Amino acid sequence: MLAAEDQALLSRALTARIQPHLSAARIAPVTLPDCGGLQLFLLNDDFPHDALSPQEMDWALNEPAYWMFCWASGLAQARQILHQPDLVRGKTVLDFGTGSGVVAIAAAMAGAAHVVACDIDPASLDATAANAALNGVHLALAGDFFQLEETFDVLFAADVLYDRANRDFLPAFLDRAQQVWLADSRVKHLQATHYVQVESVMAETLPDLNEFDEFRRVNFYYGSRG
After folding, report:
1. In which region does residue 132 sit, left (phi positive, over 0), alpha (psi from -120 to 50) or beta (all else)?
2. CA 152, CA 155: separation in Å to the nearest integer?
3. Superfamily in which the 1-226 domain is placed by CATH
4. Which residues contact 191 (CB under 8 A, 6 or more apart)?
5. Please, which residues bridge with residue 221 across strands?
6. Contact criterion met (CB below 8 Å) for 205 and 70
7. Is residue 50's pLDDT more than 70?
């Protein structure tokens, strides 16, 4: 685990990435509930969401820093892994659209043999690296899913289907991994070949965005060609 001075250094570095756009924002370590001590660098929970300037609102809408939140689906998927470590223990794992890295970190903590965290946002990969260091785990980082040459035992993806265009990835996921686990709070009834809904759980976004309960219900979908 990181020493206090190293945590403070990373907190300042991540805060510096967003303060030019959100002047009241701070990034600090947060221990996630029911996640075996897993911590993330997240936006301060007293951030004044309702008092954004027009410039801040424009940035938040058009260049969202997804990595500064632990979204409900990512939290639910991390809990799934930590509560069922056999899903990943000794296996190779890809976390697609990693965001803060919470799912990738949970997989590493649960004993995965090799974990790749993939995201097209370079800032997300920087935050994921900081969060991995915070939890004392090693992750490989990748920016382009289609440039990856390796295949995986398991692929996880949380909250990536909000854009219908992203559903084109679903066959590609099964080409790259033997098993696929999707977690999504926005898609209630996914209809896709080789995918089935297996469970629904409740989870929350951190810091709390006061979302409706319908967005706190996370559906798990399992994909396999077997």
Report:
1. alpha
2. 7
3. Vaccinia Virus protein VP39 (3.40.50.150)
4. none
5. 182, 197
6. yes
7. no
- Please identify which residue in the block is written with the tokens 């999504």: 184
For residue 138, pLDDT over 90 is answered with yes
pTM, two decimals, is: 0.94
Tell me which residue of 108, 118, 121, 57 sits closest to 78, measured CA to CA. 108
Cis amide leading into 207 (omega within 30): yes
Residue 192 three-state SS: coil
Q: Show me where the domains of the chain are located.
A: 1-226
One-letter amino acid at 111 equals G
Pairing of strands 39-43, 92-96: unpaired
Which tens digit of pLDDT belongs to each residue from 80-120? Answer: 999 999 999 999 999 999 999 999 999 999 999 999 999 99
31-41 confidence digits (pLDDT tens): 999 999 999 99
Q: In what order do the strands lie in the sheet with 195-202?
A: 140-142, 114-118, 92-96, 152-158, 177-184, 217-224, 195-202
CB 44 within 8 A of CB 28: yes
pLDDT of 147 > 80? The answer is yes
Residue 205 structure tokens: 């976004």
